[in-house]
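Dear colleagues,

As part of the handover before I leave the project, I'm documenting each prediction I ran so the next person doesn't have to rerun anything. This entry is a single chain, and its sequence is reproduced below.
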Amino acid sequence: MPIRPENKNRYPKNWKQISERIRFQRAKNHCEFCQAKNYEPHPITGSKVILTVAHLDHTPENCSDENLVALCQRCHLRYDAKFHSENRKVNSEAKRSKTEPKLL
């Protein structure tokens, strides 16, 4: 998943190297949840797989290996679904009350 500009400073300077190590060395170019292979058609959706690295606790500052997992787009979106839903609610409420949104 692309890093949003407002969150870029939350990632370590060597994020690219960390991400590559998790995706290519540890996960051996496969999704760690469904085993879909990077750059090949996804076995369920048929779309081209692009591996990403997810933070299990949704905290970009926490880059310990135990908190990171290589995921295909489908698994990453499914894993983050509840988190995204909660953020949408917070942002929607902030818009209604005209306050700054507080991201989780």
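The helical segments are 15-26, 73-97. Residues 73-97 form the longest helix (25 residues).

All the best with the project,
I.
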